[in-house]
Request: fold
Amino acid sequence: MGRIDIDGLTKVFGDGGDEIVAVDELNCAIEDGEFLILVGPSGCGKSTTLRCIAGLERPTDGKIVLDGDDVTDEKPKNRNMAMVFQNYALYPHMTARENMAFGLKMTTDLSTDEIDRRVTETAEMMGIEELLDQKPKELSGGQQQRVALGRAIVRDPEVFLMDEPLSNLDAKLRTQMRTELQSLQQEFGVTTIYVTHDQTEAMTMGDRIAVLNGGELQQIGTPLECYHAPANRFVAGFIGSPSMNFFDVRLDESGDSPSLVHEAFAYDLSDELAADVVGRGTEFVLGVRPEDVRLAEPDDENVLATEVNVTEPLGDVTFVYLQIGGDQYTASFDGDVILDPGSTVEVTFPEDRVHLFDGRTGEALRNREPPSEDAEARLSV
Reply:
């Protein structure tokens, strides 16, 4: 079992006028066997949250409950959790074998033979059995990462805690290790809490993601829920690469039908879309993901003429940077679309693909229509 309940977790550093609230009343439940990603920008409180769960930081307030037992004040060694650090934290004077066995020697009564058996079996599974007699300085970054993971796995914990474990690897190795981590977590079925600032890792690895900002939980849900139905403007802008385009607009009801007015265009609203904003103030933010910007066709509504600033052909897709008003926005088109910098193109934002946010609070008032059931089924295969 490895269910974790976080109840009102708060961590404040400093005292008096220099207090910094790193985590602010975080509430979250992580199911047994779940892979949860804590994601957010630097300084959002994700690593502090992980360290509180591990027992390396004492919470200012709140509780951490593991399988029904309050472990808030328990020492790290009594929590049956294994942590993988960003810098691997391998002892330089020990061999890989000794590093992997160290935790078992310190926290269990297992015999030397049993410890050696566990280490050997784990090393074979990780593909590092030939490295067991080498010291960290003789290993590559990827090999050190595998040793650090092996040290956590060999303990057979209830919970894995991982603090940006792939950030020191090059791009290709990160992709490879990301897949290996997912496979290992699925094989062992161990509850895993993984911290990253990389939203690509969050989208591809987790069963659910918890988005933090300024120490506060912004949204928790599946990757696709956070992508297609963000709770607020912050989540919408943080999840997704390239990030969502935002247009500051105001509601104009003076014409025959209401519209959202930007300095460079007016976006006419259907009755359905108008119902989401009329009566809720006058200042809004219109959000459009790059892949939802469409090249206009003759019968399209809300067509906007834009100038192409830069194009980035990537083969399967082409990122096009468009000048709209005084700002630059991003569109993602099929790779066979060729547009010359300096040319003028007409684009549109289909109504079923736009997001609307409260201009004052950032709260999502309307999200794009979710993918069809057929699309979701294909994504789950």
Summary: Residues 243-380 form a domain with the OB fold (Dihydrolipoamide Acetyltransferase, E2P) fold (CATH 2.40.50.140).
